[in-house]
Amino acid sequence: MRTFAYLGPSGTFTETALDQVPEAQGANRIPVATVHEALDTVVSGEAEAAMIAIENSIEGGVTSAQDALATAPGMRIRSEHLVSVNFSLVVSPGTTLADVETVAAHPVAYAQCAKWMAEHLPKAVHLPAASNVSAARDLGSSVAHAAISTPRITEVVESLEVLATGIADSSEAQTRFVLVSRDTTLPAQTGADKTSLIVELPNDRAGSLLDMLEQFATRGVNLSLIQSRPIGDRLGRYRFVIDLEGHIRDERVAAAMLGLKRVSPRVMFLGSYPRADGQRAVVADRFSDESFTDARDWLREIVSEAPAR
Amino acid sequence: MRTFAYLGPSGTFTETALDQVPEAQGANRIPVATVHEALDTVVSGEAEAAMIAIENSIEGGVTSAQDALATAPGMRIRSEHLVSVNFSLVVSPGTTLADVETVAAHPVAYAQCAKWMAEHLPKAVHLPAASNVSAARDLGSSVAHAAISTPRITEVVESLEVLATGIADSSEAQTRFVLVSRDTTLPAQTGADKTSLIVELPNDRAGSLLDMLEQFATRGVNLSLIQSRPIGDRLGRYRFVIDLEGHIRDERVAAAMLGLKRVSPRVMFLGSYPRADGQRAVVADRFSDESFTDARDWLREIVSEAPAR
Amino acid sequence: MRTFAYLGPSGTFTETALDQVPEAQGANRIPVATVHEALDTVVSGEAEAAMIAIENSIEGGVTSAQDALATAPGMRIRSEHLVSVNFSLVVSPGTTLADVETVAAHPVAYAQCAKWMAEHLPKAVHLPAASNVSAARDLGSSVAHAAISTPRITEVVESLEVLATGIADSSEAQTRFVLVSRDTTLPAQTGADKTSLIVELPNDRAGSLLDMLEQFATRGVNLSLIQSRPIGDRLGRYRFVIDLEGHIRDERVAAAMLGLKRVSPRVMFLGSYPRADGQRAVVADRFSDESFTDARDWLREIVSEAPAR
Amino acid sequence: MRTFAYLGPSGTFTETALDQVPEAQGANRIPVATVHEALDTVVSGEAEAAMIAIENSIEGGVTSAQDALATAPGMRIRSEHLVSVNFSLVVSPGTTLADVETVAAHPVAYAQCAKWMAEHLPKAVHLPAASNVSAARDLGSSVAHAAISTPRITEVVESLEVLATGIADSSEAQTRFVLVSRDTTLPAQTGADKTSLIVELPNDRAGSLLDMLEQFATRGVNLSLIQSRPIGDRLGRYRFVIDLEGHIRDERVAAAMLGLKRVSPRVMFLGSYPRADGQRAVVADRFSDESFTDARDWLREIVSEAPAR
């Protein structure tokens, strides 16, 4: 039976992301506690893939996931998933807002609902919980009168009543998740693809970052994410987490990666995969596959034989 | 009396960072729950400054702090502080490791000590706590046998015993904190300064990021942090959180900022301040203040009068 | 009386260019033999200005003029002039095409009329002349039956008859001339200006030329001429002759020149002057004078006082 | 019999350059009058190759040769030749310096010896000649007492005496010549090669020249010559004459040319050939052939099959 890991317990936003994966329907699901543990299940073969939050997450920061990917061996992103992040206030049946004096919640979720709480439950006491799900699940057996949980908690704990929905201070937050595995088969090109890389710079001089970015710009490759992370071995050395528009099989992307590989001491390819938002890349004529093919044909004719490349 | 806000409660790493601020010695200290709340106390004037974690923090992610700074009005970073982040396992006097069946801990701290826990307390049950400090403070009055807390917790809760120190999986983590206020007086140049900016790009074409970075590179300005953040108003628009080496009164930095201002629809200056690590910028001759002054003198002579600049 | 030098003798295209200069009307005119001699008359004060061909000339190549400007002290270009270059075949009155067996012509002019000669006078013998003008002037006293000369030769030598006009192989050639002097007063901005520079590069690495050009590109300054010239002191060192769109009093041009001055070991300013073709520069908003002024105001406010610049 | 064209007559510096070509020893040599005529003999097949001056020449400017190459079909540079350019003053036997009242000389050569003439023969009258060779050859049959000619004129006209050598104002001038043919076989790589191109830019915006040069800089390709030439079809459009270090079979050069081909509406390849000065290119590791090969191997492994390139 196929097995997938995710940041648990059941009912988390990460599981919602996993629900978007067709192969994970009816598959075995392993809830884990950290990004590292999620990747470990994949490295060990226990799970074929793991869903992890990679950006804007309340369940683990982008940095820890990025650092984990940078150090885990052979990880590949297979697909990308967006989940709208919001919270509900749930209670045992019969409880009203006026009854609520204590609220169980994961500390981060509690902080993200601070405005709603200040307005509607200014005197409520916060009881910290290990996860958004356990807060709700344990409602009956704890001193908490209410819990801040995920919208789909009622699928997991059917006995709950929802007192309020959309109580997060920011109503439009989305978290980006990625499904990672050790499968190195490339997903097919769709025209709306993304490629993730981790690139180290040779040193910290002003020009080396520019040298790196010119590899993209001279081939018309847009970046949708760039983030510096200290490498940690000594001061002033950085690796860059980069998401770019396009698939490694797109000529312009392949050319940029060849350039990167030459100027960087280390390039990790994390995968090419369809964009969750389906937005197609807009590519100027001179960066189209045809433009690359034409140039190669032209050069080949000049050197009068298949070039030694 | 002077007042400073920090992410509380007393005993957190953030308070350790605040201890590094001379003006905060003996001052009034307001513990707050979130980065937004910290900035609010400054905006309202309740506190003259707030200490917030800005990078690598277990007490709140870099992204939320960066986004908060990008939207709070008129914030200025006054100083930067590094705190070594580590954890201790603390107990009530007399408790031994063999006695420990339950461990109170903030969920994030618990995750960061996962390896040590798996090795030394594989059967212990995690009891989530609202903070690293409250986990320890409540030891006597809860069902927890031990707590994961900060090294300096024994200063706050004197009755505790330390069973183990340095139990975090990564022993060398540092968190970077910044002290923010609304004071727009510029700290003096020290030669080892940092300048923080938030810059929006006009659009997402491949060249606009490069245009931005050329403003730095053509003036020999090194970046120590660059991070893209979606602006959020519509897809494909980004702001960049940037730390650069140097002070806005350094000629090369001022010139780069003038260039940035011209090519970017919005540049937020978050402050120039001494680097916590004291590392002095290495500046090539052609980017020295003298080089800029000489060039201006040369140009002024050509235009035969004080140029209209 | 005002005095101007030009590549003579009277009747040359260079004198036609000088005719375009209002101050030269009725002034004393000194015909000289070479570009160096022309500049010498200016350096010595004998002439207040000299007209020299700077591009596409049949009367002296662009390179010699550029090299001369690069080494003459304190030369400034005051204005630019375009002259349509063409040739006529002239004879003593009564001579017909059938009579012409010998043709006097400056060797370069003869070469430029090669096609017309091959078609109409295939058997004619070339008698070299020192200039296009002397060829015609000496017609009566030499063995030449006809002369290749400038269209306005009949103003100088009234006794001549024109057998054919427009006999040059290329009918649309224009030569660009510049009037140079030691007057360092800057001509006023017109909105359709040009600035001429000679810039040395620090060495011949691939990046240094790019560094130089980025000084222009990051300020939106277009180049209308760029030409590498070996400096001559040792292999691999180059100076660049550059014409750019705009006046040194334009903010974007001044900023680019400040940048150039910092990255180049030697920048020679040869002048800002109105373009002969009157074509106005198209400047993107972000490179307008206002954009520069706004940026400076913004920076000045940040540093809370008139910046030390 | 093999046939080569050169700018004649016999005895010119161009013939000296042709002497450097092994295949031209004992071959048929056609002296021609202009660069265009030289190329015509190659296009028509009359000559297999033509020697033309391409830079710093007294016998025809760089611009005309460059423009000719840009418009002649299918021209390829096969080799490059340097000739030290200097002049001698020659006379009929028995003539002394004191006797010389008239000097025959090509006007350009006369100008280049202006200082020597002013010092040693201040009163001499210049008699223009069609070439440096004919000036000397016709000494006996003209009114000239002396001639300015090439050092090797005495091989051609044995009856002459040399009164002075090295009389040019600049004693170290070299002229660069190239041998052009329609043979498209590439000369072998030597490690000290040069590649000549003519590249058109899409328009005159500030960035397009930079885009072009980044194609070279991102691959570590040095330029030894860059020269803008107006295309002539309308204002503001330029072509660039470029000499770069390296052979089209060098990976970095091939990559730069592929990039150029994509961003430029027209790239003319004029040839890869050994440098006359034998100076080997210094190539950073990251631009070595190995670096390119390694990068391709790395990419190929990622895409799990021979990439479609």
Automatic annotation (TrEMBL), chains A, B, C, D:
<dbReference type="Pfam" id="PF01842">
    <property type="entry name" value="ACT"/>
</dbReference>
<feature type="site" description="Essential for prephenate dehydratase activity">
    <location>
        <position position="175"/>
    </location>
</feature>
<dbReference type="Pfam" id="PF00800">
    <property type="entry name" value="PDT"/>
</dbReference>
<feature type="domain" description="ACT">
    <location>
        <begin position="197"/>
        <end position="275"/>
    </location>
</feature>
<dbReference type="InterPro" id="IPR045865">
    <property type="entry name" value="ACT-like_dom_sf"/>
</dbReference>
<comment type="pathway">
    <text>Amino-acid biosynthesis; L-phenylalanine biosynthesis; phenylpyruvate from prephenate: step 1/1.</text>
</comment>
<keyword id="KW-0584">Phenylalanine biosynthesis</keyword>
<dbReference type="GO" id="GO:0004664">
    <property type="term" value="F:prephenate dehydratase activity"/>
</dbReference>
<dbReference type="GO" id="GO:0005737">
    <property type="term" value="C:cytoplasm"/>
</dbReference>
<protein>
    <recommendedName>
        <fullName>Prephenate dehydratase</fullName>
        <ecNumber>4.2.1.51</ecNumber>
    </recommendedName>
</protein>
<dbReference type="InterPro" id="IPR001086">
    <property type="entry name" value="Preph_deHydtase"/>
</dbReference>
<keyword id="KW-0456">Lyase</keyword>
<feature type="domain" description="Prephenate dehydratase">
    <location>
        <begin position="3"/>
        <end position="182"/>
    </location>
</feature>
<dbReference type="GO" id="GO:0009094">
    <property type="term" value="P:L-phenylalanine biosynthetic process"/>
</dbReference>
<dbReference type="InterPro" id="IPR008242">
    <property type="entry name" value="Chor_mutase/pphenate_deHydtase"/>
</dbReference>
<dbReference type="InterPro" id="IPR002912">
    <property type="entry name" value="ACT_dom"/>
</dbReference>
<keyword id="KW-0028">Amino-acid biosynthesis</keyword>
<keyword id="KW-0057">Aromatic amino acid biosynthesis</keyword>
